[in-house]
Amino acid sequence: MSPESTSDPPGLLPTLAVEDVAVELGGRVILEDVSFSAGPGVLVGVLGPNGAGKSTLLNAIAGLLPLKRGRILIEGQAIAGARGQVAYVPQQERVNWRFPASAWDVVMMGRARRIGWLRRPGGHDRNMVRRCLEQVGMWDKRTFPVSELSGGQRQRIFVARALAQEANILLLDEAFSGVDVASQEGLVAVLKELRDEGRTILVATHDVGTLSARFDMAVCLNRHVCGWGTPEQVTPRLIEELYSAHTAAHDSTDGNNGNPA
User: Fold this and answer.
1) Contact call for residues 220 and 227 (beta carbons, < 8 A)
2) Average pLDDT, integer, range 169-184
3) Does residue 246 carry a pLDDT above 80?
4) Per-residue DSSP letters for the chain?
5) Which long-range contacts (CB under 8 A, 24 or more apart) does 21-24 make?
6) If you write DSSP's letter for every residue of 75-118 in order, what string do you get?
């Protein structure tokens, strides 16, 4: 598989284009020569071992990290001009779940950019929050504090918050981590519905066994793109390269310290 291959039909502008991207943190190159593109209506698994740079890639696409080299285009625009088109769902362990907010409050936070500072939510905002909660099957939990929800329910709430931003691209960082299998499958069903509506969705994962059941495409990442294509194209030889010790050894630090994940 070539890193330059794309899921888009010829002639169509990809929703997301990552071109020759390199990211450096603390004087270390975390990502280098990363290139792939994805069109609308595709669910992409970003596959790689711990420390491969998966979180770094999603943060770069979200515009949260500067690029050392290359560019990322959202529907043909640079990130700075298309921030409203990208919604990011962080890893659960990076969220302080003890803050006093209901599921409704968290999803309404996704409307902040649309509402603006010092303005109250209007009828359209409230309708949008309701629609997003209903879409992820969490309307009946709207008044519950997020601290009382299960891991799977929290992930659904954060997906609803991302939907409330009205973004076309959703980025989920290790969305299945710490979530039971039944909740994982429920979340996958929600993501597939969103994909079928035309959204482009990237989910960071290290689980090779579920690729074909959950994703349309896979980006195999270990500091660089080892492969890009359908799950069926993720061969044993590619997996060996992806998880090879000589590259993983350079990326063994934890992503919570600002290093790759």
Assistant:
1) yes
2) 86
3) no
4) --TT-BSSPTTPPPSEEEEEEEEEETTEEEEEEEEEEE-SSEEEEEE--TTSSHHHHHHHHTTSS--SEEEEEETTEEGGG-GGGEEEE--GGGS-TTSS-BHHHHHHHTTHHHH-TT----HHHHHHHHHHHHHTT-GGGTTSBGGGS-HHHHHHHHHHHHHHTT-SEEEEESTTTT--HHHHHHHHHHHHHHHHTT-EEEEEE--GGGHHHH-SEEEEEESEEEEEE-GGG--HHHHHHHT-HHHHGGG-S-GGGTS--
5) 21/57, 21/60, 21/67, 21/69, 21/70, 21/71, 21/72, 22/67, 22/68, 22/69, 22/70, 23/53, 23/56, 23/57, 23/60, 23/65, 23/66, 23/67, 23/68, 24/68
6) TTEEGGG-GGGEEEE--GGGS-TTSS-BHHHHHHHTTHHHH-TT
Tens of pLDDT, residue by residue over 193-227, are 999 999 999 999 888 888 888 999 999 999 999 88
The one-letter amino acid at 202: L
The residue behind tokens 């993983």 is 248
Residue of 11, 15, 55, 64 whose CA lies nearest to 36: 15
What's the pLDDT score for residue 255? 44
pTM for the predicted model, two decimal places: 0.82
Report the range of poorest mean pLDDT among 28-32, 110-114, 188-192: 110-114
Is residue 15 within 8 Å of 168, Cβ to Cβ? yes
Please state, in angstroms and rounded to a whole number, the distance separating the CA atoms of residues 248 and 236: 17
